[in-house]
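Question (not urgent): is this output format expected?
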Amino acid sequence: IKATISRRKKTAAANAGRIEAQLAEVRAKIERATENLALADAADIPGISRLLAGWREQETALKLKLQREQGEQAASPEALVILDRLDVLIGSLSEANREKLAFAVRQTVKRITLRRTRLGDGRYRVTLWDGAIELRDDLGPKGTIPLADDDLAGPGRWRDATRFVRIHGGVVYLGEVAEGLGIHKAFASRLLAQATLAGKIGNLGHQRGWTAASVRS
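Got this back:
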């Protein structure tokens, strides 16, 4: 649930940023057209007016689109209720009778699909996972829960490097990673190369450090 909310907020924020840039561009055109309209010859006024009307329509459409995207950044009320009770729910599951819990899962889950993707060449390799949980048909139309690699993170020291870069924030350098993980720089360099190959972090170039990348779908 937390991962899904985080992914949705990041996607919505990125989309909102693009729409805001488009909106600013359209508004600049409207402002210039309005100024030109005041100074235009009579013969040019109809053409400028048509352009201005079209850009105003674009502005209205972009404003509505931006409102929708900004609304997507908020977690749904249902998700917030579940998050408030998550610790209690997890505690209850840990104390549940294993046979009864298995029966409840069978009544709820139709299929769990996991897919493995291996990336790399002879020097560096990583394994990424994704998949889905399919709920039974009578549990509603949204019966498939997608699973991303961050939801299914498997073993691998390169994932420790990924977490360090993400938690640190901003630009991170090789020495900081090596010191933070308590490893040699050569090993830290290898882990950072694997995390970059996985798309989890971005390499800014020679001696310019690494930054967190967008979550891989």
